[in-house]
Structures are given as C-alpha cells and as structure tokens.
Amino acid sequence: MTTIQWFPGHMAKARREVTEKLKQIDVVFELVDARVPLSSRNPMIDVLVSHKPRLILLNKADLADPYITEQWSRYFQGKGFKVISIDSQTGKGTEKIPTVAKELAVDLLEKLKAKGMKPRAIRALILGIPNVGKSTLINRLAKKKIAKTGDRPGITKQQQWIKVGSELELLDTPGILWPKFEDQIVGLRLAATGAIKDEILDFQDVAVFLLKYLKEQYPKPLMERFKLTEINEDVIELFDAIGRNRGLLMSGGYIDYDKAAELILREFRSCKIGKISLEKPE
Ligand SMILES: Nc1nc2c(ncn2[C@@H]2O[C@H](COP(=O)(O)OP(=O)(O)OP(=O)(O)O)[C@@H](O)[C@H]2O)c(=O)[nH]1
What we know:
Blueprint: H1 8-22, E1 27-33, H2 45-48, E2 54-59, H3 66-78, E3 82-85, H4 97-104, H5 106-114, E4 122-128, H6 134-142, E5 161-164, E6 168-171, E7 175-176, H7 184-193, H8 203-217, H9 219-226, H10 235-245, H11 257-269
Parallel strand pairs: 1-2, 1-4, 2-3, 4-6, 4-7
Antiparallel strand pairs: 5-6
Helix pairs in contact: 7-8, 8-9, 8-11, 10-11
This protein binds guanosine-5'-triphosphate.
C-alpha cells in the first residue's frame, strides 16, 4: 500500500504529472473500487480528464455485491461513460478492455483515416487513487510483472508502452491521484476497504461504522459469519457477541475490542462475510 501523504504540494505535483501523461494518450481508464465507486474517485477527475474519452473500470468486482455493481454500471452508463466491471487479480472482465477502448477512440481513428494515415494502436493511461489496483491491472494486461508498487509520483523513470494485443498500448506507469478527504463518511468507506492506512483513522471507529452498515444492509451474512442468533440494535452489544463467539477476551472476561475490531475489518476485506458493497447509487 502507498505511503503517500497528500499535502497540497504533493497534490499539485501529482496533478502536473498526470496532465503531462495525458498529452501522450488517447483514452483514460479510470479505475475505481467496485465496493465504493464514488468514494474511490478522485474529486477532480472530471475536470482533469474532461478532454479525453474515458472508460470506467469497476475493479475488485469479485469482492463487491454483484447486484449493486450492476446498478453502478447503469449509473455510470447513464452519465455517458463506458463501464466494465473487472477483477484484475484473475483477469475476469479485462478481456473486454481493448474492444471498448477502440470504440472510445473511434473519432480519432476516423480522423487518421481521413488524413490518409494508417490506423495506429490506441494509447491508454490507467488512472486512480492509491491501492485501487492500478499495478495489478497493468500487470494483468501486460501478461507479466511490469508495474512495481514503488512507482510513485516523484520517482521518475523512463516511461514505456506496453502492447495489449495489436490495437492497444498502455503506459507502463499509472497516473496516481489523491482520494477525497473532505467527507467523513467517504474516509470511513475508504478505510474499511483498506484504501486508507489503518493508522490514519481509528480502526475501532472504522469497525463500528462497518458493523452499523452491515447490520442494516447485510444482516444475514453478518449473522451467519459470526454465528449470531439475533442482530442487536446496539453496536456495542454486537461487538460483544462477536467477541464472545470468537473467544476474543481479555483477563477478567472482558471483550478485547481492539481484537474484535481488527477481526471484523480483516474478515470484511478478505470477503469472508460475503460480497459486499459499501455504497449504492442514489
Ligand atoms: N480481490 C481483488 N484484489 C485486487 C484486485 N486488484 C487489485 N487487488 C489487490 O489490491 C491491492 C492493491 O493493488 P495494487 O495493484 O498494488 O494497487 P495500486 O492502485 O497500484 O496501488 P498504489 O501503488 O498504492 O497506487 C493488492 O493487494 C492487490 O492484490 C481485484 O480485482 N480483486
């Protein structure tokens, strides 16, 4: 996971670097987390890449609620975007990317043709906030390990194009942009997915937020995973029940809330509670 601290200077620099990269490319692949598609978008993305055709990739779809991911696809399509839901780890869905990229660049290809030029490969850039899966997707499309997790704003390296089939080329370094910070709920959603480091937000707060959400939206999977006989309205009671059932006790028989919070977050992130989305379209 990234170590970037997004101070204003770093944001300005990331923005400059992305603007520089955009000059070389035809289409943008905006990568978001399918569990939190709006919270995991950069707040300035629409302004920054307004002049480029864009494909929205709902990544980590293997972890998200398929029914809600479908709703998100329709939501973004309704806003005029092309959308594909993908799992970059296994590659599921990624095979559709070259064809959709070509559809997006149709105007460009027409222009080249009109000028009597040969059609060339479409050039794409992957753009997203930290930890959303940019490197995993680049490696998947390249069919080998290319992107290092050390590729950070500020570390200059020779950029190269990766061939993805015969009609698509991908910049081997992604564009990294900062997440939204202004909204507490956005921060909690990002923290729950692991996009924000656990030291930044109190992880007990994050676990409480998650548990409140799960008890409202996913009571059945929650009960099954933690062998609960009922969903208690009081979150502390829920913590207690989970802690007791898993034997997370301190001396004196008190529940170890730190351990219980850690467990809830870990099991959510590793999909053990189920395929869960933390955000729904309005
Ligand atoms: N389950 C699942 N995990 C994924 C997927 N894509 C990426 N990951 C995991 O998410 C974590 C972050 O992936 P990276 O590819 O390092 O993300 P990044 O956007 O390059 O991150 P930064 O380098 O911090 O900007 C890793 O643990 C990946 O294995 C996916 O589609 N499904």
